[in-house]
Hints:
The protein has 430 residues and is of the alpha/beta class. The protein has helices spanning 8-18, 32-37, 52-61, 83-95, 144-149, 164-173, 185-206, 214-226, 234-242, 251-263, 294-301, 305-309, 312-330, 372-392, and strands spanning 21-25, 42-45, 73-76, 101-105, 122-126, 142-143, 271-272, 337-342, 348-354, 360-366, 403-408, 414-415, 421-424, 428-429. It folds into 2 domains: 8-126, P-loop containing nucleotide triphosphate hydrolases (Rossmann fold); 142-429, no CATH class. Helix content is 39%, strand content 14%. It has a 7-stranded mixed beta sheet with strand order 7-8-9-10-11-13-12, sandwiched between helices. α7 packs across α11 (294-301) and α11 runs antiparallel to α13 (312-330). 45% of the residues are buried.
Amino acid sequence: MNYLKRTADAVLANHLEAFGAVLIEGPKWCGKTTTAEQVAKSVIKLQDTDMRDEYLATAAAKPSLLLNGATPRLIDEWQDAPVLWDAVRTMVDERVVPGQFILTGSNAVDKSQIHHSGTGRISKLEMLPMSLWESGESNGKISILELFDNPNLDIDGIESDMSIENLIFSACRGGWPATVNIKSDKAKLLVARNYVKTICSEDISRVDGVSRDELLARMILRSYARNISTLVNKSTLIADVASTGEVSCTEPTFDNYVAALRKLFVICDMHAWCPAIRSKTAIRSGFKRAFVDPSIAVAALGLSPEALLNQLKTFGFIFEQMCIRDFKAYTLDFDSHISYYHDRYGLEADLVLHLADGRYALIECKLGSKEIEEGSSHLVELRRLVREHNKKERQVPLREPDLLIVLTGGKMAYTRPDGVKVIPLGSLKD
């Protein structure tokens, strides 16, 4: 099986040069272990059925024994033996050499079992399912990082190779590496469905040893899926879960299940961007509902590519999820994060992509050409409000947006006279 290069490859290499150990976190099946194996010189897998009991017994008695081996040494699913965290930290301090260990895990560990933070010794890298560029579907003719460095880059006339039908199928299939070597399209779609089933039936209880109801977990995921890319509040979600009459759900129970899904890196809600361009009461600050991969929403709703072709409004919300996933992947080495802007006057930016150095892009996700004008007007108005603020608050100016982008499901890229860059998602790379 050929290894598909990931945006995490270069980031992992850099971190191994700088730190004694690197922790790779992210949802199950996103390729963490495979990526780590490309550079690891020895490997120990705690979920190896033949060795698991012996490994756990050794970890309990003398964890340092499990750290012996050629470096970088990969410890897969390390959270099954949390004591290894402190053992790795101690070993890093003793050896005083970078690139000693790689830890991988698909759920957040119980921090009460860890005595030291690992600051300065163990760096963290979060992986995601594959972007369209990593899966070989985006032609990568436009680099988002190059655009940040050169906002005047000529993109006019660059075309995507992906049709709406292609985008819909990719969203339904998801960015799961396991799908790469599956031949039939029908079989590829089974991976995301099985992912959701496994999360609800097994992982949501295994993540912290608390027994949870499979049906309720499925109903919560379905409710989230019905409300992705929206600012729906918690009470509405709870009411939606209970509306079928199949399950009951109190607020504490809902919070408990959502917390477990976050530990599994399934749910990744977006925070609001709240610049000082409006009254604080005018800017909405709730969470925007999101999954780590669009296929989770599709599978939770029981949709198919054929169904979504006739439900393009629904696909518009799912398309936004795909844009979020891909932007996170493309800016992984920039320590980026994504938020949104929305105010009570209806002004919005679907995504605000923030880089660690302070640069940011305002982004609208629009499937078709008819929506581009509306999306562009929102972005231009936000830029104007920033400029107006800076005229009044010269001592504390806001940085103007470095890029205004409308991401589309269309074919051609171009720059509008107002400076907004219209870019097909199928033409992007890191």
